[in-house]
Task: structure prediction
Amino acid sequence: MSSEFGTTLKTSVFGESHGPAIGVVLQGLPAGEAVDLDALNAFLARRRPGQGPMTTRRNETDEPEFLAGLKDGRTTGFPLSAIIRNKDQHSNDYDNLRTNPRPSHADYTAFVKYGASRDMRGGGHFSGRLTAPLCIAGGICLQMLERRGIFIGAHLKSVADVEDDAFPLEPTKELFAEVQGRNPAVLNEAAGEKMKNAIEAARLDADSVGAVIECAVIGLPAGLGSPMFDGIENQLAKALFGIPAVKGLEFGSGFAGTKLRGSENNDPFTVSDGVIKTTTNNSGGCNGGIANGMPVVFRAAFKPTASIGKPQQTVNLETMEETELIVKGRHDPCVAVRAVPVVEAVTALVLTDLLLTEGKF
Amino acid sequence: MSSEFGTTLKTSVFGESHGPAIGVVLQGLPAGEAVDLDALNAFLARRRPGQGPMTTRRNETDEPEFLAGLKDGRTTGFPLSAIIRNKDQHSNDYDNLRTNPRPSHADYTAFVKYGASRDMRGGGHFSGRLTAPLCIAGGICLQMLERRGIFIGAHLKSVADVEDDAFPLEPTKELFAEVQGRNPAVLNEAAGEKMKNAIEAARLDADSVGAVIECAVIGLPAGLGSPMFDGIENQLAKALFGIPAVKGLEFGSGFAGTKLRGSENNDPFTVSDGVIKTTTNNSGGCNGGIANGMPVVFRAAFKPTASIGKPQQTVNLETMEETELIVKGRHDPCVAVRAVPVVEAVTALVLTDLLLTEGKF
Amino acid sequence: MSSEFGTTLKTSVFGESHGPAIGVVLQGLPAGEAVDLDALNAFLARRRPGQGPMTTRRNETDEPEFLAGLKDGRTTGFPLSAIIRNKDQHSNDYDNLRTNPRPSHADYTAFVKYGASRDMRGGGHFSGRLTAPLCIAGGICLQMLERRGIFIGAHLKSVADVEDDAFPLEPTKELFAEVQGRNPAVLNEAAGEKMKNAIEAARLDADSVGAVIECAVIGLPAGLGSPMFDGIENQLAKALFGIPAVKGLEFGSGFAGTKLRGSENNDPFTVSDGVIKTTTNNSGGCNGGIANGMPVVFRAAFKPTASIGKPQQTVNLETMEETELIVKGRHDPCVAVRAVPVVEAVTALVLTDLLLTEGKF
Amino acid sequence: MSSEFGTTLKTSVFGESHGPAIGVVLQGLPAGEAVDLDALNAFLARRRPGQGPMTTRRNETDEPEFLAGLKDGRTTGFPLSAIIRNKDQHSNDYDNLRTNPRPSHADYTAFVKYGASRDMRGGGHFSGRLTAPLCIAGGICLQMLERRGIFIGAHLKSVADVEDDAFPLEPTKELFAEVQGRNPAVLNEAAGEKMKNAIEAARLDADSVGAVIECAVIGLPAGLGSPMFDGIENQLAKALFGIPAVKGLEFGSGFAGTKLRGSENNDPFTVSDGVIKTTTNNSGGCNGGIANGMPVVFRAAFKPTASIGKPQQTVNLETMEETELIVKGRHDPCVAVRAVPVVEAVTALVLTDLLLTEGKF
Result:
């Protein structure tokens, strides 16, 4: 089983938080695609740690080194590989976690699955740090999609109990750019300030908060996706649940839609400038797994960061006795803040794969 | 792109609602597994239409015919195939839908994707009827899992605004059996009565209601699943979004967990009879994509049935003019009622595949 | 593990020789493709048994019944499924094989792998009869390819020590049609007569003979295929070794080319009517796994039929003692005679999948 | 489409001959497997260039750098990645090949497929150099298999018209070790001397020779592999045709077996020390795609090196005129000499994947 997804465009991620390097291989990328490294680095900067009180103080420059598949600023058509060397590691912070697993983290399941040979320093391969290679790969695909008129934007829909506005029925690329220029990435700046406060309050309590990220895709051709198991929802779901801390996903009206009647939840068809559209988008842009031409819209639930400074109850794996755990190390009080570009990146990878696989790229 | 999922156990579904037959092929089933056909038919009966006011009046016996892979009540180890002949079809009911697509149904996306050759009578390959072959395949896996001490049970967590109780921290197979004996499948029978009323009210309004199905898996070995993209959540998500009308999925505390602090959402470890457990299960039994030994618990959001009798606004695909649509045909006012065993079946297929793929079956 | 292959077009085969039916599911077929059933049946007739002394006397009409995916003579875009009912079975002929496995047949490996539950009557799922569903699926793809100017033809390159001519440097579709009109399928009719005699001689000896089938593909676009593991050679090899009795495969000059020097084996480039070609085709139309525009040419080695009437030494699986086996049942003295269309069918399936996957269909 | 193969153990290769690095990612490796780096480097040394007149003079130390998945000499269970930096590159030697493609090399097909962005210096991603990462990955699997009693050995069965002896009916690991200690790897040292002479003669003529490599696997459990498309032959074939210059593959008696009668080619069963064996191995250890307990034996045909110093006819891609090409650069006059460990490595990767996938590792 593998840290890889995709049918014709395969994204294969490797690395441990405190190993020599983390990286990605992209198999199946078309040849001749321009990669703007400055734009890519600007995209990666949105995910990078060490940028203020909302994020971990681990400081990594995260500059990708390309090993293959890129020459003179264009993809060669051969497998692309990029790595990031790990630098700012404090492995000692993780010594006690080897016997005392953090609640709701992968420490215990890794112990059961991999035994003594696991390398869980810094979270090992489960670390949020592994989203950096996803962003390299996804950042390249975002550029490829944009050249084809497809744009992806995400924002923090909520943090703790603070709600941002929802995307409008038809968001624009200009709106995406505006949101991406903010920290945190929100539509409503007042909500953003309240989110910062909620995160700071949790941090001061040695605690963490959860969040919901909303993402929209515009410009996707109607007809993309397939019924049953290779639909847009299936493919996105498989990949998005791979982002650490994601515990829920809904398209369109999602869970709230289950409280509506069909006559309220159904999206009436209309014609606008000769194009068939819907007057609402409770379907989130997909019917029967297939894009209907409206924006694809979904929300992912990010649980509160499992690694918190507050004392917690755990079990010592050697003595099999309950004990109190205080997690050291540097952790984001709200992982979702930096996960906004990760959601965009993974979405770009999934949709590029789907477009290529269905011969529509 | 395909109506198939699975790595070593592949479930391949075929058929159209009004074609000659619907069916399934299971590639990779182990040899020598007993299949109790009476138990399988009892399982299929839970999904069958024509059982009262809550479901469509289309009447199909849905008895599977096995074409391959089963001999003398045991799997041969070769590909298994079973089909169900379609009988009670009223294709004329669907004539006007060819030009006038139903809002929030796949009529329009099928038109865009497949063009004139599509067969959308009765919903074609998108019909809820295609869940019957999923139940045949999943019903066989449920029997295989039960022999290994793994049990799966689902119930209607909510219908419209009526809430059932949640599963307890550690549900038992006896509880599952009890719930499965009820119609609708609920923990709290009073809630079940209210759900019936809500569904009947919608039906009388020529309308429909949505629902949430909660599913739990007990007995799964800790350590099952893999990080990032082949975790339990990823695999279940990919398949569950293939059930018609599913628009959301959450594990453990899911979206509600995003409102909690880490100190509230984390599951403290404890020891019970020498086994490591957690005192809460906000993780839904998975950390880092890997089973932690607690029940795997998730909820799937089913939108209200798109096919409703009420007049709706659509667009005529030939004239490109807005028009009013009145859907004929026979439709469930709440698809989730009959989807409870479908969720169990798909879950069984995914987990059997995962157990086989990881050499743990 | 599965009786299925393909990336975007998946061919899934099921059935046992003496079970209720054999069949195929094709996932990923485009919509709107015309299927000429008369032409398909004519293609299937080339593989059908009971056609004279060269083939088994088992008599099956092998008329496919389409269950899904085809309507009004066109593919719907949904999964296509077709089955053939088994009729003329003599299961008693196989009673002694359950304990006394036939040398070089799958009886023994099936016993080890599947144990008591296996159904090996008539060869079970290993039977050459399973090539009928492959021909249904491949026959449909052959029609689709022909409409795009891609033609596939095969012939018996040798039977026992009788050699047919080789295909010319650039065979034509007219040549393919001519060869396909002959029984056996050969270029040189005199060689065909000698082959018949060799086969008849073996049959009279209650023995069998091997053969080599050569296949050529014309009209394939240069640039199809990918380096390393998804090249034309890799994909064809994976599928062709699935045809019962295939034990070898070579492209272009193949094994004979290993006796040549590079200066003799290399194909010099030339220009013909503005198109780059090669003056020889020792590469078999592929360089680095990618089509170069010349015909793709390969040869598959078919071992002599394992089931022969002559007494053979085997081991009784119950007593674990050596014993003499006399195989009853009806068997082709040369399986390759009827395998010619099977090679064409499998080649069509592989190349259609490759064209679809690379967005070149 | 991708430079990757495998179902549960995925081998993903990347890199260009004159790019920054070549490397491999192994997804799905079990945790806790010891990796003896000295033994691995000794294995890699058998493939390394610059070792005498039989091989290219390009000198690379080829020491792997592990980036992930290995800690304290054991696999962590996370994806493993290793790279080799490219050093001794003479890119100028390849300038003229950009417009003047080498006959029977991938220069022309890469031009058609990838266009101007391709990086074909040194053969790009098609270079034999890419077999180094395959040997890192396969070398690790060879160690894992040996601990389970499974051994793989290959030798040069023929070079030009010089024939080595064939493996005996049941080769031993001691025999494998003996052969692997020779250069070239042969059973019969006199044949090895003649091979050296044939290679040297070709080199002096600025020409090249082809060869056949025979490989045997002992200790594989009977019952491994699956019918039709996931058999041992299918899986090995898909991967082995990925080794540059392989143009043919045969199992057991292969093409020669097509000249035999069934009574000669069938392998009679016998009992030896309570174990069922066969007195001959014309099946190459597989029946119906499934291991029968005898050694798996196959032969791969390696064409003569396409890059030769002799003048050859090509076409200038800009002027579309025929022209004479003289290939510079440093090339093996017989690529198969160094491909012996590559065949062993790829075989180890395929069989480890198959054992893992079928739950038999």
Remarks:
- Chain D touches chain A through 47 residues (CB under 8 Å).
- The radius of gyration of chain D is 21 Å.
- The mean pLDDT of chain D is 94.
